[in-house]
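Input record (Table S2, row 674):
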Amino acid sequence: MPIRYVFVYLLYLCVMREGKVEYMAKENISVLMDEKRVFTPSKESVENTNVKQWMEKHNIKTLDELYKKGGDWQWFWDEISKDLVEWYRPYKKVVEWNPPWVKWFVGAEYNIVHDALDKHVKTWRKNKVAFIYEGEPGEVKKYTYNDLYIEVNKMANALKKLGVKKGDRVGIYLPMVPELPIAMLACAKIGAVHSVVFSGFSALAFRDRVNDCEAKVVFTCDSFYRRGKKVQLKKQADEAVENAPSVKHVIVCKRTGDTVSWNEGRDIWWDDAIKDMPKECETEHLDANDPLFFLYTSGTTGKPKGIIHAHGGYAVGTSYTLKWVFDMKEEDIWWCAADIGWITGHSYIVYAPLILGATSVLYEGAPDWPQPDRWWDIIERYGVTLLYTSPTSIRSFMRQGEEWPDKHDLSTLRLLGSVGEPINPEAWMWYYKVIGKEHCQIMDTWWQTETGHFVISPLPLTPLKPGSATRPLPGLSAEVFNEEGKPIQNAGGNLVLTHPWPGMLRGIYKNPDRYQETYWSKFDNTYLAGDVTRKDSDGFFWIQGRADDVLNVSGHRIGNSEVESALVSHPLVAEAAVIGKPHEIKGESIASFVVLRKGTTPSEELKKQLREHVGKEMGKIARPDEIWFVNDVPKTRSGKIMRRVIRAKAMGNDVGDTSTLANPEAVDGLSKGQ
Ligand code: WT7
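Output record (WT7 complex):
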């Protein structure tokens, strides 16, 4: 048996025994580090990588030297941007940093659509496939760069005709259909700002986001397929727009052909909107720092934050990371199996792959529909070479068993990626062995809606430790700080980013104070990521989870307080406390402790009602897995719910000091919940 299998097996044993990364004994990590080749691909495949080519061009011999070069970050980004984007007018300065406000590629005239589409149609890529779209029922449609270019131009012209101008906001509530990226690019083309809301979110969640950004126009579709059923999206959009006074028009794309209710004068079918529209539309020349989109993400208050991203820096940061980390080459078939409604899809389904001129798979539906091998079938049929997904998906595939992937030829795969939550070594090993057949590196990429692109991630030539996202990429810099703001090693602390990066958020829409407070107030001029992290003696980062009251369910951020407000908005609920519990597949599950209004009789039926109520308020993903009726929830004297105490109690751990509580008796009351 080759020596490397012994190491893999040893690690596997340790993982099976311990389960979680942070418990992994130091000796076992060293075993891996001593034998770096264990998780490093063959020499030949490293030789030809994009990063290796760049190193040769710059006469850089080793990985350490490369990271060091990246430490000169202004030089680095200047250099990197040359390979990736084309400005209408060059920048005067790489970066202007007035903490916490940043400008990148200052003085440049730019539009991301130039790099995503316009430049390609002038080359041989005109007829290259940009998207291979597969609907859940199985229909396939391919879009070349030229097809996309024309569709985007027509829709951009249609938007202009509806009065959408540079700087106006457009809400997009669409499932995974080609019209979603087309709508986004059409907005960007004319300098409008898109705000995509995940189609799994509720009407109310969509309404709140549309109102916050005061969208003038909204995109939606009749309905779409999910696990063989149809989701009536137009109905939800109607409900939202009814109470969104800024919205003048709703553009409706026909996905299923279902009959929908119609608001004459406000609603327009997509096909009617683009009929007779010219196939050309000039791309608006913008300032490189003009906003490209807002994307809402949960924080510690009940109100989601509208994260702002800008054209220029975002284009450079997303395309650099995809090109280097996933080694994107002309002939690759890329599949980022996320939803475009989240940042992962914005950056790595829409913008970065298009900038690089890649061919991507776009799949509408559920991974296990009609059978648990739908994904493996897709990989085999299209010859997918690069796959990017989440630990939650990997864990659910693990549960379904190896026989499903084993039915398919997955030999085209060459790199595998993971994102959204810490990947436990057990899932890492399964992914590595069963899907990657031990010849694909696992790219565990740490980043956030706010960072826009990968920050901590391996490169194809980085030695890997299962469960660690390794180190910050060249040009980016992260540290782990203790409460005093001093860098620490081998202990959990605050993950921070110590200088700005191109894809950095430009603020929170209409809320500069919250931007300052959330990310920049704990440490001077240093970005606080909100994750508890440990940096080991080799400088590898181990992300352990959120430090704040934000849940991570299946790799998606949900604020505890948002779920609490949703529960409390039910007429029979007086108070609610929501905590996350470790969950085998989803990473975290939602447990809630509910105090009912006086005179209300607790019942199983009511629990069901409350679950549905949260689903309606927020979307299915936020429905609590557990609901416990209790008499009281522990609070501080100022009325703040002590989730830490509740969590400890629920997990059977020591609750610690409860003397600061206004109602310590509530702690014991929790276990009497029903
Ligand atoms: C939070 C950001 C970035 C796209 C998906 C989520 C967690 C993300 C990893 C990873 C451990 C991760 C963090 C982060 N997270 N990637 N590779 N390992 N944790 O975007 O909704 O903005 O959430 O997801 O907790 O702060 P998001």
